[in-house]
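Deliverable D5.2: sample structural annotation.
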Amino acid sequence: MKRLILTAAALLCTQAHAGAQHLIYPLETAVIQDRDDALAYVQSRYPQTGTLALLDTRQSLLGTHYHFAPQNDAGQPCEGAIVVTTDRQGQLYRLFNSLPDDTADCVLNLPLPPRPHTLLSPPAGEIVQATMTVFDPDPRTATGLALEGDHADVDDIVIPASAYQTVTGIEVTRQNGRLYLVNDRVMAVDIQSMAALETGPEQGLVSVADGSSFAFTRQDTAFRDVNAFYHLDHSLQYLAALGFTGVRALFTAPLKIDAQGQNTNNSTYLTDTGILAMGVGGVPDSEDADVVLHEFGHAINYQLVPDWKGGDSDAIGEGFGDYWAGAYSFWVQRDRNERFELDVFANWDGVVGALKSRRSLNDQEARYDPEMDYRAHVSVNGTLSDQLWSTPLFQTLKQAEAVYGEAAFDEFNRVVLEGMAGMGFGMKMHDLARSTVDAAQRLYPQKPYAQWLNARFKHHGILRDALVLAQSNSALTVTGKNQTELSLALIQSGASALNNVQVDLAMPALNWHQVVRSELVAAGAVTRVNESVSIPASLQCGETLSLNAEISFSQDTAQQPVNYQQELTFTYGVPVLSQPLQHSQQAIPDARQINQNGKILLGEALVALNVPAGAGLVSYDFAIQLSLSHPRFSDLKVTVRAPSGRSVTLLNYQSFPLPEKTDTFTMANTAGLSELLGEPMTGNWVLEVTDRVTGQSGKIHSWGVGAVTGYDCSQTGTSTDPQNKQTTDNPAKPENSSSSGGGSLGLFSLLFGVVMALARRRQF
């Protein structure tokens, strides 16, 4: 076994990512029973913090969270936070730290005072049960019908009777012979006046005679109050059923909602007054449970995190609201054979009428840039901020439901809510993603929720391994007598230096094992690694090889170590296709901004390849070879279009840490390629590369399509028939292909070559 020591001098660096990690998992143990213990611990660990003020103490399913805010010399609150999190036994578990370096000149974070307003509120009385008529969750989902209607006037849309549901046992208040929409959880109010709000119509208090039901339809304005009241009450009861009750209760007083609170096509949770004000422009928002529950999602955010502000919190809040609404629509349809538009948020309010605004819960092209702050409803580098957070959550919920059925809803919703507990001012998506994966592992260690979440967050670039090994070429060639050249790179992509690094590498097929150790690996370090390795006599040309790596490091010497595994796959020998490669050296134009408003014109490169007659049909041995270079692969989408017009995406804005990539895409390692089975090979094939982010350009070096006829495993260019090789590609493990760009490890002797990665900041 070789032992390789990385020296600090060999790993020169620049900062790769601008965003620092706010989550800290201390090595030391401490018992914290109350706010005084928490404050004493913080001041002992961070003596330079100065004066801290306790904002609040919150309890969640897994422990207690003490939220502190920094203050300046005048006692005014500053932007920043430190949250001390303990487990259920009061043992220190984690810190969230976004404290400013200096509070003398800090940016103030003053609480917003309640704006002047007047409300009409229902009276107190006796709690009784009533019957209501509602949309559950909306008329399109309830019926599975489009119901597009007349775009000019939504009031003319014909709603079938089957769109309405009768619900019973709903708690309301009885007073003086009438029933009002108020109970211990929800209060339907009427905003009569409010500063800085374009208030909606004054509908008064909705009530019915004792013994009657709230049986309205959408032609009655009272239906809006009833529908919103029901869905908000149902969701609040669901929170309690998940375990957020007693000392863990998120809401301790009735939540106020005005179903016609705004005269615009917009709804808002007013944080200063604690009121949900629903809009009436276009389709009245209260008719769509998605919109009601989305706004309720904002209220949940502020109850879980008292200083929900700064960083990516705006976009996270929008994404969580979409998720919370989508999860309920999914639950309503859980027993249906055919589910209606699961991946669409607001598919009633956002679809019908002249004012359309629906969002996707399945934006697989959304990618995260840690150097940017994500606001609400904005596009960053081609990614809508709301969808960037909702997509990994909702798609993991679908994955969980497919495996565990109805039980997955409660379990996964607990994970999502618990993940937010303990966050603080200035949280970034990668902070919350890490916390959510952590919550999944702690709540359900026997189920793969954490693994699934981790994979989806990595797909979107929200989570990234701080230390990765990457290969620029997936094929191992023969470089000398019984020798192959392994060329890889060790990349430190974190925002700060890593301590006590150890990488255990193993490639069993080559009888090779190494351990790489370093006390310090600086941020942004890229170390090129090359080694000639002997080829065992038993190795067959065309065989698939795996390189496994176990990685361990600490963010600093006072934190718990991070441990994870990576894997790379190689092919021994270069695959030979039935059709010759096209060597194009075609430039990939950079995207460019074309006006003052930040509108982006995509950069596009098209390369055609003609396959002559007699080439046969696409079969299971079909492959696409591609070699291209680009400083930032996350800018690129690479698609191949067959002569029939059917297309397959090879790279989809996925991050890749090296500037060059040569790979062979096969049925086994590329999702979607099997859709081309049976297609004629003859005709024009088109490679299309799209760049959606300004700042970098690249080049297509070569590409080709065809059946794999053999593997070139010699210096003379002879090839081996794939039918004679001993080991073939494993179709059960397509995620291990290097085309994923995720990177596993392979490292041999160290011939250091340092690449400086300059930090960048782009603004849209």
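Annotation notes: DSSP finds nine helices and 41 strands in the chain. The radius of gyration is 29 Å.
The annotation will be released with the project's public dataset once the embargo ends.
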